[in-house]
Amino acid sequence: MKPFFTLVLFQILHAIVSAEVQDGQTGVVITLPPQPTDTGLKQIPDADHPFITPGPDDQRGPCPAMNTLANHGYVPRNGVMSFEEAIVGAQEGLNMDIGIVGPLAANALLMRGNPFINKFSIGGVSPLVPPLPGKIDGPEAGGIAKHGRFEGDASMTRSDAFIGDNRDFQDILYDMDLLQLGKFGDNGPDGNNTVFNVATMIGIMQHNTIMYQSTDPEFTFSASRVTGSSGAAAFLLNVFANGTTNQSTLPIIGSFLRNQTFPPNWFRAGAPVTGTVLGPNAAAIQAALPFPPGRNNAQGVYVADPLPPTPFNSSLGCWAYWVQAANTPAVLQNTTGIFKQNVDFLLQIQFPGNPACDQQLLPFGPAGV
Ligand code: HEM
Ligand SMILES: *[C@@H]1O[C@H](CO)[C@@H](O)[C@H](O)[C@H]1NC(C)=O
Ligand SMILES: *[C@@H]1O[C@H](CO)[C@@H](O)[C@H](O)[C@H]1NC(C)=O
Ligand SMILES: *[C@@H]1O[C@H](CO)[C@@H](O)[C@H](O)[C@H]1NC(C)=O
Ligand SMILES: *[C@@H]1O[C@H](CO)[C@@H](O)[C@H](O)[C@H]1NC(C)=O
Ligand SMILES: *[C@@H]1O[C@H](CO)[C@@H](O)[C@H](O)[C@H]1NC(C)=O
Ligand SMILES: *[C@@H]1O[C@H](CO)[C@@H](O)[C@H](O)[C@H]1NC(C)=O
After folding, report:
1. 245 lines ligand 3 (CB under 6 A)
2. Which of 197, 240, 246, 277 most suits a substitution to test ligand 3, by most atoms within 8 Å of the C-beta?
3. Buried b (16+ CB within 10 A) or exposed e, 76-100
4. What is the pLDDT of residues 265-289, one digit of tens each?
């Protein structure tokens, strides 16, 4: 049996026989959810998942997809969820393949959640996600909206954290995105220049990176932000598109980004959205970025980041994997019991493990940031 599946089997057995308490919290073993058998075209939402405006205690944050899934109850409406709940919700509502959503959910738990109790917030700090046992990563679990490890600069609809609100949708930023749509968009059922395409996403990313490099003294565009932001731009084209037409139109994108609700008469993708589907669009967007991975120095001059050590310098993706480990607290290596099992499981989910990136990293980042 492959080591990975042996690990999963061991975790399931362990869950049955043990209840483990650390620092007053009860550990919950993380597992891979069963994979869906129904992965075709389907109208979303169904009758069981109406839009309900979030209440004051419900967490929402920088990810339009997770916010939309929560507003419709495909993931818990309070915005606090487990690894499995995030994956199952994104699979059902958006036909996201586990190969994409698995590593995203693993990042959320390892960087900004509580992997011992298997919970993270898609917004800010929540009383439902206590700090790690022993507060080894500081006094609170931030939630994915916390700037730095996961949430970063040059987003399409959220401000850079140094400039303003990095969590909520910003009309002014979206209006600027729509100027690019007006210039580069394809013609469609809603009029000319109303369908998002690669040229539009390139226009948006070029505009945002140049604008923030010159206005945000702390502008940081690491390898993982390069892959993350161009990946998000590709998501907009491949995941939010109407599955019957493959078009991401002005009303569809407005509904997801501005209103955080599924558009009327929307169909999810006809097949799971995998890395193979997203790759060409993400690569085209990356190739057109004005800057290599880097950041502003104290004088506001953009300086390219040094390459990581071999073999992580072999590709942008492997470099991003290295940056991710550098932004995950090293103290997670020092855990025990279910806590350690879950950390090891999530690290395995993140590991690209392909020939171009075949060396697994343990987290080596600072705690409490
Ligand atoms: C558990 C799964 C997911 C997690 C933890 C997650 C997390 C995040 C985070 C932290 C950001 C902020 C990055 C930044 O701009 O600084 C983000 C942005 C984004 N996410 Fe997600 N995400 C998940 C799944 C998805 C899925 C399935 C989609 C599919 C459409 C998606 C689409 C986007 C888009 C388009 C943005 C960019 C928003 C912008 O630039 O204004 N995400 N996500
Ligand atoms: C839309 O574009 C088509 C093709 O370029 C053109 O023939 C048509 O006049 C345009 N329609 C409008 C309303 O501008
Ligand atoms: C949409 O994309 C899928 C996957 O690439 C393809 O199989 C399908 O034929 C496309 N549909 C249309 C209407 O272009
Ligand atoms: C957003 O919701 C408002 C209020 O329901 C509605 O009037 C508007 O048309 C919606 N916009 C989009 C782009 O879906
Ligand atoms: C998706 O495409 C179908 C078939 O063309 C159409 O009936 C439906 O209105 C479209 N939905 C959206 C949200 O554009
Ligand atoms: C990676 O770094 C090693 C050691 O410095 C170097 O020999 C190699 O050429 C680099 N590879 C790439 C693709 O830059
Ligand atoms: C792990 O714990 C040991 C013993 O307390 C300590 O020496 C070491 O620095 C810790 N390592 C990390 C990465 O926190």
Report:
1. yes
2. 246
3. bbbbbbbbbbbbbbbbbbbbbbbeb
4. 999 999 999 999 999 999 999 999 9
Q: Is 276 in the pocket of ligand 2 (CB under 6 A)?
A: no
CA neighbours closer than 13 Å in the CB half-sphere of residue 163: 20
Instruction: Provide CB contacts within 8 A for 319, sequence distance 6+.
Output: 223, 293, 307, 308, 312, 313
Give the residue among 359, 360, 354, 326 at the shortest CA–CA distance from 110: 326
DSSP for residue 341: H
Check: CB of residue 147 under 8 Å from CB of residue 112.
Answer: no
Residue 65 CA to ligand 1 center (angstroms) comes to 6
Q: pTM of this prediction?
A: 0.94
Q: Count Cβ atoms below 10 Å from residue 287 Cβ, excluding itself.
A: 9
Query: Encoding tokens for residue 312?
Result: 């992580």
Query: How many C-beta atoms lie closer than 10 Å to residue 130's C-beta?
Result: 17
DSSP letter at 247 equals B
Residue 17 CA, ligand 2 centroid: distance in Å? 67
Residue 192 Cα to ligand 2 midpoint, Å, equals: 6
Q: How many CB atoms lie within 10 A of CB 368?
A: 12
CA distance linking residue 238 with residue 39, whole number of Å: 15
Q: Give the other-Cβ count within 10 Å of 231's Cβ.
A: 20
Q: Cα(245) to centroid of ligand 5, in Å? A: 7
- Ligand 7 atom at minimal distance to the Cα of residue 330: 13
The secondary structure of the chain in percent helix, strand, coil, rounded to multiples of 5, reads 45, 10, 45
Structure token digits, residue 294? 């880097």
* Res 19: pLDDT: 85
* Model pLDDT for residues 140-170, shown as the tens digit of each residue: 999 999 999 999 999 999 999 999 999 999 9
